[in-house]
Design goal:
It is built from 3 helices and 8 strands; from the N terminus they run βαββαββββαβ. It has 174 residues and is an alpha+beta fold.
């Protein structure tokens, strides 16, 4: 007797250390905004960590008497986590760049301070090979500090560098 029960394929979960992140993302200090990936479910979701320290360059001016991580940097952290997830699935990623094309529904609920550990949870909502949307949520401990919906697009690095003579006309690096 043959069992015809179909089994659902369970996505493989994995992690990334900083060296793996550096191989995937083009960002470098002071703009690399994730330190570790603690979970990846390919093409679905990622959980990454950003250790927030007083040494972050933005704290010098935001704000000198009360250092608070700027909301835009929290959203950038979510975008970089999402970029790491999507770029890890692209075979020729050395010739590609994922850029921001939009941010929607950004909400900032609590301040993020030096010494906090930001946990970034990003879920793919739609992905069509060269463009997508992701929902990101940032936590400190169990407290939600921010969320946003991020749109992105994959570009050829040559196009971004302006080898075509026109340069990039869409988005910012995420």
């Amino acid at each position: 007797m043959t069992d015809h029960t179909e089994t659902a394929e369970v996505p493989v979960k994995r992690t990334m250390d900083i060296n793996e992140i550096l191989r995937i993302l083009p960002h470098r200090f002071p703009f690399l905004m994730i330190d570790r990936v603690i979970e990846i479910v390919p093409r679905q979701r990622i959980v990454a960590i950003k250790n927030v320290t007083i040494n972050e360059p933005f704290f010098m001016g935001h704000f000198p008497e009360m250092p608070i991580m700027p909301g835009v940097m929290i959203v950038e952290s979510m975008a970089q986590a999402g970029g790491a997830l999507l770029l890890s699935e692209i075979e020729d990623r050395e010739s590609k760049l994922i850029v921001f094309t939009g941010v929607e529904r950004a909400r900032f609920r609590r301040p993020v301070l030096p010494g906090d550990q930001l946990r970034l949870e990003v879920e793919v909502k739609s992905w069509r090979g060269t463009a997508g949307r992701m929902a990101g949520t940032a936590y400190v401990g169990e407290k939600r500090v921010a969320e946003a919906t991020i749109s992105c697009q994959v570009l050829d690095r040559k196009r971004v560098k302006g080898d075509s003579g026109e340069g990039s006309k869409s988005g910012n690096e995420s």
